[in-house]
Amino acid sequence: MNTNSTDSPTKRQELNKIIRKFSKPSPGKAAWQVSNTLIPYILLWAIAIVVFRNEYPLWIGWLAIAVASPFLVRIFIIFHDCCHSSFFKSKWANKWTGYLSGFLVYTPFTDWGKAHISHHATAGNLDKRGVGDIWTLTVEEYIEAPRLKRLTYRIFRNPFFLFGCGPAFVFLILQRFSQKGILHKGRLSVYITNLVLLLLLLVGHAALGYKTYLLIQLPILVISATLGLWLFYVQHQYEEVYWARNDVRDSIRAALEGSSYYKLPKIAQWFSGNIGLHHIHHLNPSIPNYNLQACHNEIQALHPVSPIGVRKSFKSLFIHLWDEETRKLISFKAMRRIRKFRHKK
């Protein structure tokens, strides 16, 4: 990713000036985003219910489920912004919108939010991996690891496992438990979320029957989780990504070079709440998603960042290890070549 230097105090001051301007939440934009996301999502659910209960052509129901799934991704972006207290001005509004949207995306508000803030604090830091990120080993760590760990890592990084089993496991199972190091309030949010999900299941059974409820809920959740996991993966797993040891890590570079500018088609950008502008989000998570594009447009003039297109993003599926010498993510195949070369030296 090609970027200009931000080391000069003048450029950093200009960046901060731009950020401050776009960090202010807009109640109008927030309310409109909730409306144009939640209302269509509910209507699509209603269509699917009518189709499956009245034995209308199944393709209509499956189409409603397919369209509802990216709307659930957009609901997750609202939830995500609330975790950063950036969606609304009001702390109360962020909290309650976060909890309610969290129920829809099967994610506990406080527990996930605290872990995600830790992810922002450690992104691009080779010495502080393991919090809210994709498991990534360096070439040396992989070579020196026991055989069982290497095998486990290869299975985990396999796209069929990562995007086949991973999304359902994370949202249906992993997030039913509190994350390591999260205190009482975080654990309480897990218990509350699990209780609400159980109540929703019981209500769904009483109103629709388990079969109809799960026939709609599970595909929407798994499809949206897969789309969301892919977005998160591309945001931090690409060849030119920035990683550095703690003592030399630069926070501006970690944001602008350690998080991608994933340039999506406009409709995909809308459904994903501009989260493809992830470099701007990591530059300052207080910028609400509806301000990211405008902020990016101003910062791009000051500090150009090369985008990753959809076609190029699929290359991320085939790079697995961080090479500290070349400062790039590389494939297992490239690792074997490097290992032979360094052994000869």
Note the main attributes of this structure:
3 strands, 64% helix, 345 residues
Describe the 3D structure:
With 345 residues, this protein is mainly alpha-helical. It has one domain. The chain has 17 helices and three strands. The longest helix has 28 residues, at 27-54. The chain is globular. The two termini are 30 Å apart.
What is the topological layout?
Layout: H1 9-22, H2 27-54, H3 58-83, H4 91-104, H5 109-122, E1 137-138, H6 139-144, H7 147-157, H8 159-162, H9 166-173, H10 184-207, H11 210-236, H12 251-256, H13 266-271, H14 278-283, H15 292-302, H16 310-313, E2 321-323, E3 328-330, H17 332-344
Parallel strand pairs: 1-2
Antiparallel strand pairs: 2-3
Helix pairs in contact: 1-15, 2-3, 3-4, 3-11, 5-10, 9-11, 10-11
End-to-end gap: 30 Å
Q: What portion of residues is helical?
A: 55-70%
- Please count the helical segments: 17
The tally of structural domains comes to 1
User: How much β-strand is present in the residues?
Assistant: under 5%
Any low-confidence stretches, pLDDT <50, length ≥5?
none
> What's the story with the biggest beta sheet?
3 strands, mixed
Order of helices and strands: HHHHHEHHHHHHHHHHHEEH
